[in-house]
Amino acid sequence: SDLNKHMKYILPVVLFALLALSCSKKEAEKQAAKDEVTLQDYISAHNLNATATGSGLYYVIEAPGTGPGCNSNSTVTVAYTGYLTNGEVFDQSDPTGATFNLQQVIQGWTEGIPYVKEGGSGKLLLPSALGYGPQGSGPIPGNTVLIFDIVLLDVL
Predict the structure, then answer these.
(1) Could you tell me which residue, 28 or 50, shows the higher pLDDT?
(2) Active-site hit among 35, 58, 59, 106
């Protein structure tokens, strides 16, 4: 039948795709393990009382805030400083902050910012998978752990 004729071409393509998927999953798991060591070392070196969320994200609440909370779909204004584990700053808002919807930012922010209420501040420690992943972005190399100091100025 026609199907049998095409199977000899389709099967190798399917097997190759599955193999590639398996390899990329293994790479992601290896990177997650490396990031976890980097995060633990950073937390220890800076004597942080960080909470793990289970996704790889850690957060530290410096001031919980007294205003309304937000969720992963909220639009918020956040003042922030983003830096690498060596302390090098790669991005910073001005003191009036930046306004955005939490669905339009990196995954670590979508997950982490709702742990703080309006007026609160804290630190988000992101494994690379919740930041810019293996591709990186601008000055941020691929597979880089990111640290953010955040102040939730406004929940809109």
Answers:
(1) 50
(2) 106
Give burial (CB, 10 Å; 0-12/13-18/19+) of 26. Answer: exposed
- Output the pTM of the full model: 0.85
**Which residue, chain included where needed, has tokens 């930041």?**
131
What tokens does 35 get?
């990031």
Contact 73, 103 (CB under 8 A): yes
The pLDDT mean for the chain works out to: 90
- Nearest-CA neighbor of 142 among 27, 26, 14, 13? 27
CA angle 41, 42, 47 (to 5 degrees): 100
What is the rounded average pLDDT of the residues 102-128? 97
Q: Pick the catalytic residue: 80, 113, 115, 147?
A: 80
Active site residue 16: no
